[in-house]
Amino acid sequence: MSAESLLDVRNLSIQYPGTPTRAVDEVTFQIGRGEVVALVGESGSGKSTLARGVAGLLTDERIDVTSTALTFDGAPIERNAGAVLPERIPGITMMFQDASTSLDVVWSVEDQLVAILRNVERMSKKAARVRAIDWLDRVGLADTQRVMKAKPYELSGGMRQRVMLALALASAPRLLIADEPTSALDASLSRLSMELMTSLTTELGTALLIVSHDIAMCTEFSDRTLVMYHGALVDQGASATLTETVTHPYARGLLACVPTFEHLDDDELPTLDLFLTASTSAAKQGAAA
Prior knowledge:
The chain is of the alpha/beta class. The protein contains 11 helices and 11 strands. Residues about 80-85 and about 280-289 have low confidence and may be disordered.
């Protein structure tokens, strides 16, 4: 990773109470300033738990969290007494996958944007309103005056997602974590949303961590990709050459399962079981030898 490190995570483990295994198991990775990193894996692999832990959103003191080091922007992330992590780490903002439940249903879009802008920087309501309109324009929302007055439930799913992006970036984060940002959108809107998010964060110099099971989309729009399996980070590499560089059987299998035009005439599509079974058999043969 050539970019100067912004987030440095060393041997992070997270275990929920009453569970025999760790949701995140000794994970180590870095994110550089302005870098776009994708975190991929199947549902239940630990991606969202890892993201929430990094963002400081696991505050239940019953959750067991250990690490060698957690550093953001050169400063250690200290745990509060009796809490897992600080309730919010300044400079890190997280976007959740369901905009319909993440946005306040009582406040208008204007109320929410103005509140965030005035929290970030001292300004009058009038100045904040002008800035809010500018943010809605930057995320590609037409008829900004109408959107400003609307409640979230009065907007379409795609519009709510853009409002979420505006709110997230208006908080001036140095790192934006997007958890399944396109899961509620169709294929065409997903691509537009990803293009918008990556172009804006690049323009602002904001680092971006995309948490998703959509591997094809992630590798296209990210600089690096991290692969999680059963709570562990099993492989990583430059997104552009990931298919040629990954070595872990699960990572190779996951990438092989991504639909491509080459699969159109296949009678049987690749499955993860084939790769993992082959890996287990090879390991047993090696041990026997």
